[in-house]
Amino acid sequence: MYKRLPDVGGETVAVMIDGQPFRARAGDSVAAALLLAGHASFGTTAVTAKRRAPYCLMGVCFECLVTIDGEGGRQACLLPVRDGMRIETLAATTEPAA
Fold first, then answer.
1. Which residue of 9, 43, 48, 93 sits 20 to 30 Å from the alpha carbon of 65, by its own alpha carbon?
2. pLDDT reported for residue 93
């Protein structure tokens, strides 16, 4: 769905996304890493169970909330990835397994 534009490389960091290892590029936001890892949905809304995903990518809409290193309610679009980060989408706990 999303792919990175061609570039000359760059340092990568190891993160865990919903328990799965992923290599993200240093400096990417958590939201960008999730999208590149194939996560089109980060969770569902509490009332209508509609899927949530990044919308504004600048910290205004709160549609990209995830749990990072055990701390919930973090905005994925505002935080850069760092080596060893554990990212959990709400989709991992709120959506039925396929």
1. 9
2. 54
How wide is the angle at C-alpha 16 spanned by C-alphas 52 and 96, nearest 5°? 40
For the four alpha carbons of 7, 9, 12 and 15, in that order, the dihedral sign comes to positive
> Which amino acid would we find at residue 57?
L
Q: Is 27 left (phi over 0), alpha (psi -120 to 50) or beta?
A: left
CA dihedral for 54, 32, 42, 59, sign (positive or negative): negative
With 0-12 CB in 10 A as exposed, 13-18 as middle and 19+ as buried, what is 6?
exposed
Cβ atoms of 59 and 77 within 8 Å: the answer is yes
Chain segment 13-47, per-residue pLDDT in tens: 999 999 999 999 999 999 999 999 999 889 888 88
d(CA 98, CA 85): 26
